[in-house]
């Protein structure tokens, strides 16, 4: 659950501006996570999120100067724990996950920022990944498989 929650936090921060821990709690609750402010505070510390100021005030952001090693380890662990099978046809990659994990893994895939991925569609245990160019499917598959390999 923690991996899924932290993946959701990454997605929330990538998609919007979160000013307070309370806003982050609400955003997580809207995604079905029953969290307290203390849990969110621990996640912020563990994920080493930063609260920075700009012309609009303070907001949370992912660490910039630190290597993405910790994030990549979480992504790798999430893929290893939750993805059961990968296959493809033409420009569509299909990932089978453990029951209930597809949306969290799809959110993680969306956060990778791979320009060849047009988007994901997630059910309960299946994710469709739409790759822009058919010739790039093998490269995207290689990226996914590198996350799974131990």
Folded structure, characterized:
The protein has about 150 residues and is an alpha+beta fold. The chain folds into two domains: about 1-60, Arc Repressor Mutant, subunit A (Orthogonal Bundle); about 70-150, Gyrase A, domain 2. The chain has six helices and six strands, in the order αααββαββαββα. The chain has helices at about 1-15, 20-30, 35-45, 70-80, 100-110, 135-150; strands at about 50-55, 55-60, 85-90, 90-95, 115-120, 125-130. The strands form two sheets. A four-stranded antiparallel β-sheet has the order 3-4-6-5. Strands 1-2 form a two-stranded antiparallel sheet. A hairpin with a 2-residue loop joins strand 1 and strand 2. Helix 1 (about 1-15) packs across helix 5 (about 100-110) and helix 4 (about 70-80) crosses helix 6 (about 135-150). It is globular, with a radius of gyration of 16 Å. The protein starts with a helix and ends with a helix. The relative contact order is 0.14. The model has no long low-confidence stretch (mean pLDDT about 85).
Q: In terms of topology, how is this protein built?
A:
Layout: H1 2-15, H2 21-30, H3 37-47, E1 50-54, E2 57-61, H4 69-82, E3 83-89, E4 92-97, H5 102-111, E5 117-122, E6 126-131, H6 137-148
Antiparallel strand pairs: 1-2, 3-4, 4-6, 5-6
Shape: globular
Strand order of the largest sheet: 3-4-6-5
- Which CATH-level-2 architecture of the largest domain? 2-Layer Sandwich
| Helical run tally | 6
Q: For this structure, what is the CATH class of the largest domain?
A: Alpha Beta
How would you concisely characterize the structure shown here?
Helices cover 47% and strands 23% of the residues. It contains 6 helices and 6 strands; from the N terminus they run αααββαββαββα. The strands form 2 sheets. A 4-stranded antiparallel β-sheet has the order 3-4-6-5. It has a two-stranded antiparallel sheet with strand order 1-2.
